[in-house]
Amino acid sequence: MFHYKVKWIRQALGQIHCFLIVVNELVKVTTFRYGPAHTGLHKDEDKMERYSYPKSFYKAPKVPDYSSLGERKRLSCPSLRQFFKIMKRWMVGTKDSRILLGGISSQRFKQLSLTQEGRILSRDQLLRVTTIIAIDDSLRNLLPRGQANQWVQTSSRDWNFCGRTPLNAMVDGGILTLWELRWQLQDRASVSNETEREQ
């Protein structure tokens, strides 16, 4: 119940944030077109600042540009190594592993599994691999190691698995399911961390 309240509070704060930004922009547009008198605010800039939304100290992390060849060269090798480690821990077969990589051929999969050095993934493949790594990280934050590895192979009615295993859902659903599962687990992990800090 607490998790749902936290999630609802986050959504409400996000909506309030958006509303204040819209109001602030409307004030700027009105001031530009009709002058300060029509806004009900004083000309003094110091007073105008009181009606502005405060600047955030949060800085979003830099998002890698997967369309950049240089960035893919830098990330492909370590990401592939981590991917194959995860597939081994999750006990995922070759066929499903190939599908999770975007349905690559058995020959290409064999090449990637034998050596990762010098391999360059496509934009789609790198996105899939890094998403699976993020899913694994969230599971290890939420569950003990043994349970985290077994979770993907355990049938569940949670979320939208409908009695399937999470692995089946990831294989059947493609990149969209991978992304949705990633954000669901990351949200749960962040709520869990906040609860631990409060205790």
Task: Walk me through what this model shows.
This protein is mainly alpha-helical and 199 residues long. It folds into 2 domains: 8-49; 70-198, no CATH class. It has helices at 2-34, 45-49, 69-90, 94-100, 106-114, 123-142, 145-151, 166-198. Residues 36-43 have low confidence and may be disordered.
Helix content: 55-70%
- Summed over residues and divided by their number, the pLDDT gives a mean of 78
Strand content: under 5%
Radius of gyration: 23 Å
Shape, per Cα inertia axes: globular
The helix-and-strand class reads: mainly alpha
Distance between the termini: 16 Å
Number of helices: 8
* E-strand count: 0
Low-confidence stretches: 36-43
- Tally of domains: 2
Largest sheet: none
State the order of secondary-structure elements, H for helix, E for strand: HHHHHHHH
Draw up the topology in text:
Layout: H1 2-34, H2 45-49, H3 69-90, H4 94-100, H5 106-114, H6 123-142, H7 145-151, H8 166-198
Q: What is this entry, summarized?
A:
The chain is mainly alpha-helical and 199 residues long.
Give me some keywords for this one.
199 residues; mainly alpha; 2 domains; 8 helices; globular
